[in-house]
Amino acid sequence: MEKQKKVLTERQVERRNAIIDTLKSMIFPVVLCLIILAGVFFVVNYQGAVEEEEIIQPNAFGGNTDPIVLESDGIKFTMDPETTQFEVLVKSTGKVWKSNPEGAEDDTLALPDEKAKLQSTLVMSYNTEAGLETTYDSYNYSVKNGIYDIETGDDYVKINYSLGQVQKEFTIPPVCTKSDFDKWTKAMDKTGLNLVQQYYKKYDINKLGKKDDKDALLASYPIMADEVIYVLRDTTKDNVKLTMEGYFADAGYTYEDLLKDKELDNSSSTNDKPIFNVNVIYRLEGDDLVVEVPLKELEYKKDYPIYTITPLPYFGAGGKDDEGYMVVPEGGGAIINFNNGKTSQNNYYANVYGWDMAISREAVVHNTRAAYEVYGISDKKDSFICVLEDGKSYAAITADIAGKNNSFNYTNAVYSICMREKYDVGDIANSEIYKYIDELPDESLIQRYRFVDSGEYVDMAKDYADYLHAEYGNYLALNDDEATPVAIEIVGAVDKVKQICGVPVSRPLKLTTYDEADEMITELKNEGMTNMSVKLSGWANGGVSQKLLKSVHTISALGSKKDLQNLVDSANSQGIDIYLNGVTQYEYKSTLLNGFFSYRDAAKRISKERAEMFKYSAITYAAREGWQSYYLLHTELAQKMDDNLEAYASKLGAGVSFEDDGKDLSADYYKKNPYSREAVLNIQEANFKAINDSGQKMMINMGNDYAIPYASMVTNMDLRGNDYTILDECIPFYQLAIHGYIEYTSTPINISGNDTEQVLYSAEYGAGLQFTLMKESSFALQKTLYTEYYGSDYSAWHDRMMEIYTRYNNELGHTFNQEMVGHDNISETLSCTTYADGTKVYVNYDYVDASADGKTIPARDYLVVK
């Protein structure tokens, strides 16, 4: 019996184990089936869902033709509501500035589309997925059709433009059933009811008139076969439709109801062409005209993203017989004279703050950039400047002369709205495919027009200075310099490939040790270079091409951390400002060992690709994709790099120098956490302000206008810009506004390629001096990629450097705590800059002596007259 029970127990165990094994074997198929079912459920319920078509409701002109007026103590704004064109009267001088040039409709040079633009207060363009760009203007595509609305308040005028190839549309039923008609009219008062009944005709299939064509009516209104309908009469005028629109709106009729009723009307021709809603707000702030375009109020279909917007493209434009000029922000500033005859040249174009590095480029011929956001027009008696405020980082400033597409000289700002990235689909398609940003930020485009009672560019620049002082207050204070500011960049190390056990490995190449740097600056100080700011480059994390700054590692070949501390202490004890320079927006040659993982840490392009950067060929202009690439960092990671650099410099008692912040400005299109370019600008500015408030000194490159109020020194400022043929004169517009308040230098004199000319530029533009130095000779740079430092040998350049500095400081050192109050281009090669104490600096770029004001200025030299 016990044996039988034992057998039964063993059989039960075997059966149980078999069942368990069977269940285990079924786990994977069951899980797989559940995943497949979940996928099918998702596809059926979500992927198959049809997105509702985006509804863009057109605006309609209200019909009020009375002029719209805004007025302050200094200016009077008057708009014609029938055209939305306006004029601004400057009361102090009687000068009238017009939004559009007079006689535009009769311009014999302009083609019809160009005439329409000249009569427009807004020009926009849109794109398609294939990248095809189409331009709409507010005159042809909105005002002529009356598809705009005007909203007024105590201190503003708002124009709600609808732009598109559409007829004027009113929110009233073109056709509706009797039951709906009765519902709407029942909610109207007697006046509304009588008006509506008068302009709608009733059709009953069983009670047609003798002149009614039954077949034609059924073709136009198929619903008539089953229901009695009411149809809006074709002869109804727009003013009557507008009145009825009010009655229907009060009765609860909506645009969605209109769309439903339009489906009953087969007589209406369909229009698949896109329509856009763009709102423009005008208001007066003091004696300034402020223009705003809210991005969140833009309406467009995703298939037709808005690519660019240009507010007031021809404000203040000068005609072919007018005298005057345009001021553009090329370098320190430039002038384009009206009607200069250079009609075969390209128009002027410059991106504010340069290129957005998060957007790829196939080729780079040269970079267009403006460090400040101002342009203006002068008729030589009166002038205005336009200061771009919110949204300025999306702008490019353009200018052109009469005689090309039309008979007018103009300058304006073109804003990029829906950024795009091209997909590489060459293997599967012949056409190009573009990806656009999914959503616009909650920001606005704002530009401010300031009117100047003078036609001189010096006074225009001083008005810009007034704006900066009002904007930044005590952050822009007159400095107390008594000597020429000099920036000394000392190069610590660069990377060089060396053979280690037969394997090529990149290692830091020593150019200047910390102790050698101390000796150099001490020697220069003892020789009389008193107002010195030292930028230490290539001092950590591999050298000039710096690895990620997640942690700071000094370079052992340059000395110990204590040696670096001694260098900083020595500089501070001598009254020399020393700055640790670092790269915080990019990484170079970083790996996982440096804490960098490109799929996690690199910023993203609109196409979702990593923002990988390349050098560009000077011969083909194309990206050198076979060379070492580098990456733009995620915005939040770049912020951490800023913090790390600031903290390390502060711990040593040094200032902080940013290689790229304050110069480069790039968005981050990472879908989960995107940062617009304007958002990054605000982050950078907040960081600069915090550094300034902490008392730590800060150095930046180039000097974007939002950064300079907080900087102690700006190096590598672009004084002259690009030598575009359309430009007529170079002027120190930017420097007229900031000199005496900001220390700035141009490019290093000894590696500029022409040291004499660089000194002359500095003298004319009121810049300090900059030199880039290293202790090693230039031979040490052989077989490296750093040929730009060949002229940096300290021993080879020491005597020439001191010669340049000593004369420059003796003659100009007293001017750096003064405002620049005047400038004149006496001839194409001779200029004169004037300071507050009356000091005049004549600069002669010619190869022969020149004369001015009874003085002789030697060839290729400057003359200071106190």
Structure description:
This protein is of the alpha+beta class and 866 residues long. The chain is 26% helix and 26% strand. It has 17 helices and 44 strands. The strands form 10 sheets. Strands 7-8-12-13-25-20-19-16-17-37 form a 10-stranded antiparallel β-sheet. Strands 5, 6, 14, 15, 18, 21 and 22 form a 7-stranded antiparallel β-sheet that branches. Strands 36-35-34-30-29-26-38 form a 7-stranded parallel β-sheet. The N and C termini lie far apart (129 Å).
Topology readout:
Layout: H1 2-47, E1 68-71, E2 75-79, E3 86-90, E4 95-98, H2 112-118, E5 122-126, E6 134-137, H3 139-143, E7 148-152, E8 156-164, E9 175-177, H4 178-186, H5 190-199, E10 200-203, H6 214-220, E11 229-232, H7 238-250, H8 255-262, E12 275-285, E13 288-294, E14 306-311, E15 318-319, E16 325-328, E17 334-337, E18 348-351, E19 374-378, E20 383-388, E21 395-400, E22 408-416, E23 420-423, E24 433-436, E25 444-452, H9 457-472, E26 486-491, E27 493-500, E28 503-510, H10 514-526, E29 532-537, H11 561-573, E30 577-582, E31 586-588, H12 598-601, E32 612-613, E33 630-632, H13 635-652, E34 655-658, H14 677-694, E35 698-701, E36 713-715, E37 729-730, H15 733-738, H16 755-765, E38 769-773, H17 794-812, E39 820-825, E40 830-835, E41 840-844, E42 850-852, E43 855-857, E44 861-865
Parallel strand pairs: 26-29, 26-38, 29-30, 30-34, 34-35, 35-36
Antiparallel strand pairs: 1-2, 2-3, 3-4, 5-6, 5-14, 7-8, 8-12, 9-11, 10-11, 12-13, 13-25, 14-22, 15-22, 16-17, 16-19, 17-37, 18-21, 19-20, 20-25, 21-22, 23-24, 27-28, 31-33, 32-33, 39-40, 40-41, 41-44, 42-43
